């Protein structure tokens, strides 16, 4: 599957549709070249691996008591370090990130995830390597 976004529910955006078409075309081009026997050299790529989903701070009744801090809003895939602002309570108190390592949040403050009790997803940046690749079918 391919998910290209974010975009609001029920909205068709030309720029997002164009990105989706490009990634599907690249995928199909790869399949064609692979099937034709092209050899692909070894490579490495950085990816983001999901660590955990993080909920909003809540009171004992399960009600949200803080929002995403303005410095975190719209910072998907950017490093979040220990002590960086994370949430802002309705009283104006900053709740910092308390972690042992730098993480890369994504899906920050997405409307579709409120009902799933998800403020954002913490990811870690890792490097994947692949050996050369070539179809064994002639």
Characteristic terms for this protein:
Aste_AspA_hybrid_dom, three-stranded antiparallel β-sheet, ACY2 Aspartoacylase, 138 residues, 2 domains, N-terminal domain of TfIIb, alpha+beta, AspA/AstE_fam
Uncertain residue ranges: none
- Share of residues in strands: 25-35%
In CATH, the topology of the largest domain is named N-terminal domain of TfIIb
Task: Just name the CATH architecture of the largest domain.
Answer: Single Sheet
Mean pLDDT: 91
Sheet with the most strands: spatial strand order: 1-6-5
Structural class: alpha+beta
The helix-strand sequence is HEEEEEE
Tell me the major beta sheet: 3 strands, antiparallel
What is the CATH top level name of the largest domain? Mainly Beta
